[in-house]
Amino acid sequence: MQVQQRPPLSAEFPEPIKRDAKKPTPLGGLRVIDFTHFIAGPFCTMMLGEFGADVIKVEAPLKGDDFRHYPPAEPTLDGQGAPFLWGNSNKRSITIDLKNPLGREVVLDLLRGADVLVENFSTGVMDRLGLGYAALSKINPRLVYCSISAYGRTGEFSDRLGFDPVLQAESGFIATNGYPDREGVRTAASTMDIATAMMACNAVQACLLARERTGRGQYVELSLHDTAMLMIGFQAMQHLFSGVEPTRNGNTSPDTAPTGVFRAKDTSFYISSSNTGIFQRLFAQVIERPDMAEDEELMTRAGRLKRRDELFSVLNEEFGKQPWSYWQPRLRAAGVASGQVRTVPQALRSAETASRGLVTRLPHPTAGEVPKIALPFIFSDTPLADPFAAPILGQHTREILQGTLGYDEGRVDQLMSGGAFGPPAERR
Fold it and tell me: How many CA atoms lie within 13 A of 246 on its CB side?
């Protein structure tokens, strides 16, 4: 099988637009010490980094964050996986052996001047390392300490390991997704990890705001389980009030019609018809069926749900007569929410994505250039920091020791020979 050569990034994606250097970043001047791995923790600290905080990612020597090795391996990234780049931009990496007393001294020096610590080790690990909140709040009372776990840090389930798809299963999320005639399905995207990361980022910033008023940091913890229970959405409230168990509805909606996937002559697209006004514009202006738009029974949500099959049949018959290029402008002009069912490659290269500057390219020390997916924030007065690529393992060890902590060459050499940053032959 012939392998297709990927076009150079420069042929497809621009460099990011530089921020106005005269304006401050939202979190400029703050230091975040990052003890996270995989997705929920790293994505949180990545956002803090793009908000302008100096994020120092503390990684184990030799291996680093396990997510560095998530497939597919990329030779230009020292054989590590490309997915790591997605959640670790705007960070500096230092390798430290946390079980080495010399390494622990370095960590404590970093934490004395830090504003935020984020960790997602298994319950009890940070305490065993002497890096729990009770110990660190004594040396740095202003520290905001954010702990992320699967099932919480207290209670009978605090020892349980849990990953995104497990929490999708246990929260009822899987049971509500997919088609009614088969087993429920998980989302391919790490929904619970990403949502927990966003919650954690919000929590950290709330604690920083509170610190401005109280002068003290605090401990905040989040769990994937708690976030997952929120992510099942308003269906939870529907059940608690009605007693009815939510069902799987595929691409249709149990609450609105006609909502779902339809087929033009050349491609599929999605329509969300969430109220009577949209329904009427869809039938009167888009497919020119004013008789149905003014049908008394179809003027009600209940009536449209009752006649869902009929509505779908009429729409698909009409949509099949013309390509998407015909229907898209008509739907847009009529104010009907709709969109083509795209593949990931199509979405990354769509006109909508390009117009927002969401996919760009960044310099990288080993790969030359790597792609970057932008965060969805635009601030008028405190723009995001200019993005830079996720670090290679230990890339900034010496820079952090000398530039951030002010260690001299002799101190650095002593720590390195003592194994604080891993075996000398393997460190960067």
Answer: 24
Q: Give the C-alpha distances (Å, rounded to integers) separating 257 from 108, 179, 186, 210, 232.
A: 58, 17, 24, 45, 21
Supply 53's token pair.
């905080």
Question: What is the secondary structure of 343-395 as a DSSP string?
Answer: -HHHHHTSHHHHHTT-EEEEEETTTEEEEEEPPS---SSSPPPPP-PPPPTTT
Is 125 within 8 Å of 131 (Cβ atoms)? no
Q: Is the peptide bond before 72 cis (omega within 30 degrees of 0)?
A: yes
Closest CA to 307 of 315, 289, 319, 327: 315
Q: pLDDT tens across 248-264, in order?
A: 999 999 999 999 999 99
> Quick check: 34 and 44 in contact, CB under 8 A?
no
- CA proximity to 225, closest of 148, 332, 111, 322: 148
Q: What pLDDT digit, counting tens, does each position of 69-120 carry?
A: 999 889 999 888 999 999 999 999 999 999 999 999 999 999 999 999 999 9
Strands, sheet with 116-119, edge to edge from the N-terminal-most edge strand: 91-95, 54-59, 31-35, 116-119, 144-149, 219-223
- 56: part of which helix (H) or strand (E)? strand 54-59
CA atoms of 60 and 181, how far apart (whole Å): 47
Contact 264, 339 (CB under 8 A): no
Residue 391 and residue 88 in contact, taking contact as beta carbons nearer than 8 Å: yes
* Distance between CA atoms of residues 88 and 57, nearest Å: 9
Beta-strand relationship, 337-340 and 91-95: unpaired
Assigned token pair, 37: 């791995």
Q: How far apart are the C-alpha atoms of 375 and 359, rounded to whole Å?
A: 10
Token pair 């200019």: residue: 386
Q: Is 260 left (phi over 0), alpha (psi -120 to 50) or beta?
A: left
What pLDDT is attached to residue 425? Answer: 52
Indicate the residue type of 262: F
- What residue type is assigned to position 113 of the chain? G
Based on its alpha-carbon atoms, the radius of gyration of the chain, rounded to whole angstroms, reads 26
Structure tokens at 54: 């100096």
Q: Which two tokens stand for residue 409?
A: 């060459």
User: Hey, is 337 helix, strand or coil?
Assistant: strand
